[in-house]
């Protein structure tokens, strides 16, 4: 089966049928970033929210010079919290270090937890150690999902100095928090991490214990 041409995709993106536009966006996966981004931009303001969301995500995986300013602006100004969260996530995929400042602002200033969650995850994806203070603050907030994101991101930035602070989550009632902790500790080599992972390996939830086993193996291999 032959792939549609760029002209055909462009025409399909202008179809009044939202399903056609969605299919056209999906077919851009095979297209080089420089050719895909101008077409993605056609539907960034689409009336269909799902299409807008797909377009924002697509900008994160088709990096060109245009993508960063578009995503940063969406994160800071779009009225829809879902699109702002998508933009935060896409900035993490883009892995452009310029995303650090807008992501930090979103974490501190956005009123929606989903946007703040996406910002915390993406700060981990950027692997920028400057995110340490932001992520430590997230640990102390009331939102469990933000705690999950912060623990995972601290592992991503290899913040060994966070180990003492995150070990308290080994007793969390939320198994997803314990799983994120087990995964993060696999990137934070210390005697306390190994001790905690031995404890988490006996966790009653199979996904927590499996994550702990994998992390112990990772630490053993990275001696």
From TrEMBL:
InterPro entries: ARM-like, ARM-type_fold, PBS_lyase_HEAT. Signal peptide: none annotated. The keyword S-adenosyl-L-methionine does not apply. Keywords: Antenna complex, Phycobilisome. It comes from the Bacteria. This is HEAT repeat domain-containing protein.
């Amino acid at each position: 089966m032959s792939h549609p041409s760029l002209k055909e995709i462009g025409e399909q993106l202008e179809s009044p049928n939202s399903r056609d536009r969605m299919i056209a966006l999906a077919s851009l996966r095979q297209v080089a970033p420089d050719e895909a981004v101008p077409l993605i931009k056609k539907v960034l303001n689409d009336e269909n929210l799902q299409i807008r969301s797909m377009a924002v995500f697509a900008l994160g995986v088709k990096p060109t010079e245009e993508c960063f300013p578009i995503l940063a602006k969406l994160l800071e100004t779009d009225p829809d919290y879902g699109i702002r969260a998508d933009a935060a996530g896409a900035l993490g995929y883009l892995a452009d270090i310029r995303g650090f400042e807008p992501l930090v602002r979103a974490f501190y200033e956005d009123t929606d937890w989903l946007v703040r969650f996406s910002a915390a995850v993406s700060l981990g994806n950027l692997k920028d150690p400057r995110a340490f203070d932001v992520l430590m603050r997230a640990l102390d907030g009331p939102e469990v999902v933000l705690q999950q994101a912060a623990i995972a991101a601290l592992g991503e930035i290899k913040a060994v100095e966070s180990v003492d602070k995150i070990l308290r989550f080994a007793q969390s009632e939320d198994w997803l928090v314990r799983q994120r902790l087990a995964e993060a500790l696999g990137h934070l080599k210390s005697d306390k991490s190994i001790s905690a992972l031995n404890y988490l390996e006996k966790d009653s939830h199979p996904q927590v214990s499996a994550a702990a086993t994998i992390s112990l193996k990772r630490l053993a291999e990275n001696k």
